[in-house]
Design a protein that fits this description.
Blueprint lengths: L15 H15 L6 H8 L9 H13 L3 E6 L2 E6 L12 H12 L5 H12 L5 H13 L4 E3 L7 E3 L10
Antiparallel strand pairs: 1-2, 3-4
């Protein structure tokens, strides 16, 4: 296995994304047939992320699998991850906004943060903050895709705009 000196990675790039891309780069460079949590911890042990916990390494592997960089396989010994065939797949979050707007248009009705959150989670496969849902609904309202209701009340909801009010009655 290749060892990387901690000075090889700049301190400004020590976030979760950098850690995950580093793990993926090492797996590709060494040609590792399967990645496990233990192997990920061994790779991290020679880097500035040497204090990474098992749960974080497991989360990193799951995230890379969700983004289609890795393919999960369940074996008797546990879950292993194999490198995906596409070296640069599209991130599932890239098209979330368009997909959610399609869901809102298809299902119609009143949309609240609580109703949007499960649809968003289904797309991304990860936890979504209520604040993100609230901001997204507000952005759709600002862009004219939705109408806002319940202004000044505890229950705010959004609906598709009613385009029939402009015609003859």
């Amino acid at each position: 296995m290749t060892t990387i000196a901690p000075s090889a990675v700049p301190r400004s790039a020590l976030g979760a994304e950098a850690r995950r891309h580093f793990l993926l780069a090492i797996a590709r460079r060494t040609g590792t047939p399967f990645l496990t949590t233990g192997l990920a911890l061994q790779i991290y042990a020679t880097t500035p992320w040497h204090t990474t916990a098992r749960s974080t390494a497991r989360r990193d592997l799951r995230d890379l699998a969700r983004r289609a960089y890795l393919v999960p396989h369940d074996t008797k010994a546990g879950r292993v991850y194999q490198l995906g065939s596409d070296p640069n797949p599209a991130h599932p979050v890239r098209h979330v906004r368009r997909y959610l707007l399609e869901v809102i248009r298809r299902e119609g009705g009143e949309w609240t943060v609580g109703r949007l959150k499960p649809a968003w989670r289904q797309v991304t496969g990860t936890h979504v903050l209520r604040m993100s849902c609230r901001r997204y609904l507000a952005d759709l309202y600002r862009d004219g895709h939705l109408d806002r209701h319940g202004e000044g009340t505890p229950r705010r909801f959004y609906t598709l705009p009613d385009h029939t009010t402009g015609g003859a009655a």
